[in-house]
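PROTEIN DESIGN WORKSHEET
SECTION A - STRUCTURE
LENGTH: 113
TOKENS:
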């Protein structure tokens, strides 16, 4: 899976181009969202960043062609996966999903700086 790494590099460059020194949390978030899209969604997968005009914070968006909605899994000490969205919900200022008119969805997360 090379897509999560490419998404992390894209986010790092986006933050650097805007003079934001620390992209680490945003890179963790986008990596999880892209991995979920790869594992549970459908192609095409598209990553973009928009700025929320109300507060100036970056919003990471990962679109995919799948109709299934991501869900935070219950906590488990024995599960070997299923923690990604729990981490996203802890790290992001806000997150959610919205359907796309053409089918599929966008999963987004707002980054607090």
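SECTION B - SEQUENCE
RESIDUE ASSIGNMENT:
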């Amino acid at each position: 899976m090379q897509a999560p790494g490419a998404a992390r590099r894209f986010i790092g460059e986006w933050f650097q181009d805007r003079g934001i020194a620390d992209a680490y949390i945003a890179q963790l978030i986008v990596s999880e969202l892209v991995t979920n899209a790869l594992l549970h969604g459908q192609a095409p997968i598209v990553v973009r960043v928009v700025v929320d005009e109300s507060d100036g914070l970056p919003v990471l968006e990962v679109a995919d062609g799948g109709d299934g909605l991501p869900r935070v899994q219950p906590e488990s000490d024995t599960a070997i996966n299923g923690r990604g969205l729990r981490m996203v919900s802890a790290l992001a200022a806000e997150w959610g999903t919205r359907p796309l008119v053409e089918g599929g969805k966008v999963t987004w997360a707002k980054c607090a700086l």
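SECTION C - NOTES
The CA atoms of residues 65 and 103 lie 6 Å apart.
The longest strand covers residues 58-64.
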